[in-house]
Design brief:
By secondary structure, the protein is an alpha+beta fold. It has a single domain, classed as Thiol Ester Dehydrase, Chain A (Roll), CATH 3.10.129.10. Helices cover 30% and strands 31% of the residues. It has a six-stranded antiparallel beta sheet with strand order 1-2-4-5-6-3. α2 packs antiparallel against α3. The longest helix has 19 residues. The N and C termini lie far apart (32 Å).
């Protein structure tokens, strides 16, 4: 079964309009479900998928995403490329915020700042403690993300400026 066919077969709660939350909550309960979820996200957002992120945990106000160190994400200095790290930071922050949104809300990243603290090598993890919007009222949130190496040292720090607003009515 391909990823698109699997996505079409996923159960959705009729009272939940946060599709990302519904998919994660269902898939994370089954063995390998986090891999399937990660592939679904990669298919929906191909550029994000280019770094091969694997979602390890998502809950209200939190996400943790792993990225393997492989040739496709390396630079000429034999470390993980700055843009791959920024991509992981954006995905990790967006995931935590999107999961935490009220059902009638949406968001877009309005800006991002990134600090590269040291060379990144080995398996890398993005970790985010996200704000939890109580309403879909139009408001900007700062979403902080830490990118950690295998020993837990912070190699990159990012702040996303995310604009939350009500979903457009059909």
């Amino acid at each position: 079964m391909n990823v698109a066919a699997l996505a079409d077969s996923l159960p959705f709660s009729s009272n939940s309009k946060n599709v990302l939350r519904t998919q994660w909550d269902w898939l994370s309960r089954i063995p390998g479900g986090n891999i399937v979820f990660s592939k679904l996200v990669a298919q929906a957002a191909p550029y994000t998928g280019s770094i091969g992120p694997i979602v390890e945990d998502v809950r209200i106000g939190y996400s943790r995403v792993r990225m393997a160190d492989r040739r496709a994400v390396r630079n000429h200095l034999n470390s993980i490329h700055a843009v791959a790290l920024a991509n992981l930071a954006e995905f990790t922050g967006n995931l935590a915020l999107a999961y935490s949104l009220p059902n009638d809300a949406r968001f877009i990243v309005a800006g991002m700042s990134v600090e590269y603290l040291r060379k990144a090598r080995g398996t890398i993890r993005g970790v985010c403690q996200s704000p939890v919007p109580a309403t879909s009222e139009r408001r900007e949130y700062l979403v902080e993300v830490s990118i950690l190496n295998e020993t837990g040292d912070e190699v990159t720090r990012a702040t996303l400026r995310s604009l939350v607003s009500p979903k457009k009515k059909p």
